[in-house]
Automatic annotation (TrEMBL):
This is 3-methyl-2-oxobutanoate hydroxymethyltransferase. One of its GO terms (molecular function) is magnesium ion binding. Pathway: Cofactor biosynthesis; (R)-pantothenate biosynthesis; (R)-pantoate from 3-methyl-2-oxobutanoate: step 1/2. It is an enzyme of class 2 (transferase). Belongs to the PanB family. Mg(2+) binds at D58, D97, E129. Its cofactor is Mg(2+). Its EC number is 2.1.2.11. Catalyzes the reversible reaction in which hydroxymethyl group from 5,10-methylenetetrahydrofolate is transferred onto alpha-ketoisovalerate to form ketopantoate. The keyword Cytoplasm applies. It holds the Pfam family Pantoate_transf. It is found in: Cytoplasm.
Length: 282
């Protein structure tokens, strides 16, 4: 494996300090936390100008590799994409998802995977999916120098158990379950928690009850912050569009048009023209 120096800031007269894990945690009750996903250097460079937190999500599998779920994502993939994002960002706190199967077996397995990801990428923290059943693991990691972001509600890595990507909290049973899950993860020492696909009153209740910031995705403005997949807000990913996604641009349309024009010019022998060709020395 090729290894690169990690986290070397770009030269600057006044080096920009990255937001730290405690700084993110302290944002609860002050200003909303702005989070987007990124998987690549060019996108990380762009979103880093506006985000507090960048999540290198295991959604990379669905968004960049074209899979139907996040199940097939590997630790190697998360390390490679995490490296790219850390290298290309300088002010946001970077969090990397632990992929399915890399942490659920035991706290020890989770620790080994988390350390591998943090060492390979230079990221500040890892994120893992799960509620009460993962509380011991979150406690184990946070007491050993690994900051953890939780993720409850709609947990995409459990898609095969749930039978789809389903909103939760609509009945009393699931509402109480997601509240217990969030509380358990917060009390176990997570610095923040993603609430995904949780109905508004339940997200509001959790946000009021726990001491750490809630970062919502399809969980209403009651949360302490918001996260979306960057390719979704750019209109770059067109595979599907959950109700909670707002497209702020239509980049895929622009790319389609650019590719179409290029193809047309090549076929007409209009490209390359004199401005895009090397000529002999005069
Ligand atoms: N591009 C992308 N965006 C995401 O937000 C995302 C991913 N990929 N991959 C990982 C997970 C999967 N996600 C999903 C995928 C589908 C729905 C969806 O179809 N939701 C239904 C809700 C159905 C219900 O009411 O229970 C919807 O209509 O929004 C939601 C979240 C969120 N994450
Ligand atoms: C959508 C966020 C929360 C995520 O887990 C991912 O991108 O994988
Ligand atoms: Mg994820």
């Amino acid at each position: 494996m090729i290894s690169y120096p990690i986290s070397t800031p770009l030269s600057s007269a006044t080096p920009i300090k990255r937001l730290t894990v405690p700084a993110i945690k302290a944002m609860k009750g002050t200003v909303p936390i702005v989070c987007l996903t990124a998987y690549t250097a060019p996108v990380a460079r762009i979103v880093d100008e506006v985000t507090d937190l960048i999540l290198v999500g295991d959604s990379v599998g669905m968004v960049l590799y074209g899979t139907d779920t996040t199940i097939g994502v590997s630790v190697e993939m998360m390390c490679a994409h995490g490296q790219a994002v850390v290298r290309a960002s300088q002010r946001s706190c970077v969090v990397v998802d632990m992929p399915f199967g890399s942490y659920q077996k035991s706290p020890q397995q989770a620790f080994k995977t988390a350390v591998r990801i943090l060492k390979a990428t230079g990221a500040a923290a890892v994120k893992l999916e799960g509620g009460e059943e993962m509380a011991d693991t979150v406690n184990f990691l946070t007491h050993r120098g690994v900051p953890v972001c939780g993720h409850v509600g709609l947990m995409p890595q459990s898609v095969q158990v749930m039978g789809g990507f389903k909103v939760t909290g609509r009945d009393r049973e699931t509402a109480e379950k997601v509240c217990r899950d969030a509380t358990a993860i917060a009390e176990a020492g997570a610095f923040a928690i993603v609430l995904e696909g949780v109905i508004e009153p339940v997200a509001a209740e959790i946000t009021a009850q726990i001491a750490i910031p809630t970062i919502g995705i399809g969980a209403s403005s009651a949360c302490d912050g918001q996260v979306l997949v960057s390719d979704d807000i750019f209109g770059l990913f067109e595979g599907f569009k959950p109700k909670f996604v707002k497209r702020y641009a239509h980049i895929a349309e622009e790319m389609r048009e650019a590719a179409r024009q290029y193809a047309e010019e090549v076929r007409r022998r209009e490209f390359p023209d004199q401005n895009h060709v090397f000529t002999p020395k005069t």
